[in-house]
């Protein structure tokens, strides 16, 4: 047929012209060597089968529109609460509820705020202060409380006796029943620093060092600031 005649006929009768138009075969609209959709469907089906085996859930109980929703394992990893009617075993749901109840009843079971034992090791004295997590003091002792005077307060022996005395007071006053976690905070580098460490690691501190959860150094560091006093020269 003449192309001009076909064009005129298609303009006059659109319905007749549609049947005369050349259409591409159906096999040309598909990619001949593409098998990606089938592979993806097989992989998804295998994943669902593995999830069913892990969760001990029969295949007929799976939701009809499973492709549009997340899987049970994905919901578990995202932290959602999964109920038994969503395809998860009752044992898992009971375990999750018990863990949730335990966290609500004991929110600070393993992460309770620690008590603090401040060890101020000055070059002229050693001061030990035990405080609650909010900073309230419970016990404060220095070498002067044990009878050491003037330059004797800065010695190693005075700090050693002070640490032993403070550990004994903590046990006698029943603070060990209250303290669950203890943080030791050192300050400065006097002789009392090493003496306190020896007592803590010795026989006197066997009931204290098991409570230590953290050791911190809060020594003051000066960046600039005022001019320091001159260095003392002897001789």
UniProtKB/TrEMBL annotation:
Pfam families: Ribosomal_S11 (PF00411). It comes from the Eukaryota. GO terms for biological process: translation. The keyword Ribosomal protein applies. One of its GO terms (cellular component) is mitochondrion. It is found in: Mitochondrion. Component of the mitochondrial ribosome (mitoribosome), a dedicated translation machinery responsible for the synthesis of mitochondrial genome-encoded proteins, including at least some of the essential transmembrane subunits of the mitochondrial respiratory chain. The mitoribosomes are attached to the mitochondrial inner membrane and translation products are cotranslationally integrated into the membrane. This is Small ribosomal subunit protein uS11m. It comes from Aspergillus brasiliensis.
